[in-house]
């Protein structure tokens, strides 16, 4: 992360205070701390502070938490993004066998990260960063932290249903595709 995106954390709200209690005093250190937290689903996705209590988080909860930190500290320009991308064996090697088993080249997947200008800040995984090529990105849109739950899931499911209709050679149902997606998520939850 480039230092010119950095800012000091003020005791200006719940999320800011959670970081300060960990002796984390600026955004750059906060982002690095969140990146080191293991990947995993949270007990309560509607309360992003559970990233601290669960000591795990997903792309959604980790980046919504960082966006809330920016909001509490009145920092503009940090956008919470929802990206749909072609999750494949190149950008997510751990799912190769799952894709092969179901004769899929890729699965459209929803992903969250922060964006400042053209720079992506992705704190999803402790040891890796999802490196997407331009042709793997299907779409990208700014969302608010409260949209990481129902809105994101519903948008993703609607897109998958539309995508399946456009794939006449696929003989997989939406329910089966969602199960393949869940198995894929489980495979990289163990990274």
How many alpha or pi helices? 7
Order of helices and strands: HHHHEHEEEHH
Topology, number of strands: 4
The largest sheet is: 4 strands, antiparallel
Rg from C-alpha positions?
17 Å
Catalogue the unreliable spans: none
Q: Categorize the overall geometry.
A: elongated
Main-sheet strand order equals 3-2-1-4
Average of per-residue pLDDT values: 93
The helical percent reads: 25-40%
Strand proportion, as a percent range, falls in: 15-25%
Distance between the termini: 22 Å
Q: Structural class of the helix and strand makeup?
A: alpha+beta
Description:
The chain has helices at 14-21, 27-36, 50-54, 59-72, 96-101, 150-165, 174-189; strands at residues 78-87, 107-116, 119-121, 137-143. It has 191 residues and is an alpha+beta fold. The radius of gyration is 17 Å and the shape is elongated.
Features:
4 strands, alpha+beta, 16% strand, four-stranded antiparallel beta sheet
List the helices and strands and how they pair.
Layout (H helix, E strand, L loop, with lengths): L13 H8 L5 H10 L13 H5 L4 H14 L5 E10 L8 H6 L5 E10 L2 E3 L15 E7 L6 H16 L8 H16 L2
Antiparallel strand pairs: 1-2, 1-4, 2-3
Helix pairs in contact: 2-4
């Amino acid at each position: 992360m480039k230092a010119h995106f950095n800012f000091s954390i003020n005791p200006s709200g719940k999320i800011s205070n959670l970081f300060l209690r960990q002796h984390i005093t600026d955004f750059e250190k906060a982002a690095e701390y969140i990146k080191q937290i293991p990947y995993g689903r949270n007990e309560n996705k509607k309360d992003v502070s559970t990233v601290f209590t669960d000591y795990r988080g997903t792309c959604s909860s980790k980046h919504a938490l960082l966006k809330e930190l920016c909001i509490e500290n009145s920092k503009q320009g940090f956008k919470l993004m929802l990206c749909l991308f072609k999750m494949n064996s190149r950008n997510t090697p751990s799912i190769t066998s799952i894709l092969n088993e179901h004769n899929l080249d890729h699965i459209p997947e929803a992903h969250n990260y922060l964006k400042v200008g053209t720079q992506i800040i992705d704190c999803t995984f402790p040891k890796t960063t999802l490196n997407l090529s331009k042709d793997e990105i299907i779409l990208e849109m700014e969302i608010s932290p409260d949209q990481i739950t129902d809105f994101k899931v519903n948008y993703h499911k609607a897109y998958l249903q539309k995508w399946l209709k456009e794939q006449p050679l696929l003989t997989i149902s939406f329910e089966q595709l969602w199960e393949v997606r869940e198995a894929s998520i489980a495979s990289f939850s163990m990274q």
